[in-house]
Amino acid sequence: MRPPNLPLDAVTALPLVYRATIPEAYRDVMDHMNVRWYLALFDDAGIDLFENIGITEAYFKANQTGTMDLEHHIHYLAEVRIGDAVSIYARILGFTPKRLHYMLFMVNETRSRLAATLEVMNTHVDMTTRRTAPYADPIAEAISAMLADHQRLDWAAPVCGVMRP
Known about the structure:
The chain is α+β, with helices and mostly antiparallel strands. It has one domain (8-151): Thiol Ester Dehydrase, Chain A (Roll), CATH 3.10.129.10. It contains 4 helices and 6 strands. The chain has helices at 8-11, 35-52, 57-63, 137-151; strands spanning 16-21, 65-76, 85-95, 99-108, 113-126, 131-132. Strands 1, 2, 3, 4, 5 and 6 form a 6-stranded antiparallel sheet that branches. Strand 5 (113-126) and strand 6 form a beta hairpin. The model has no long low-confidence stretch (mean pLDDT 95).
């Protein structure tokens, strides 16, 4: 898979969902951020994305629901070093009543580079049966609105090509 040739201004026009500075604890023997921390940062960003569309802990409790990731694809593009500031932006790629296909873009603000992308297939779950279930109408409407905005973008998301909702 070739690295995406995306201008940073296209990525940074997406909704910003997370920002962090890489701590010393993330250093590995190669003197950069260890790969395990990319997923941790993307996970934190995913929580913020979900909260932006109403999928909150209160929503989960009130509806006895949850979400679960079904598949991930991380594309590492540029080194992230200790002390670098990163920001993560979100794009909705697809949506069904029970599934959400989205992508997160990690930008290394310190070095002005796209550092990594994460493509995710996530499902909504009824926690009483532990089976997939439709999103509540307000959530589905919020996802649909964000998806419509993202479908109007003039650039294709650099997807892996195997995930579909």
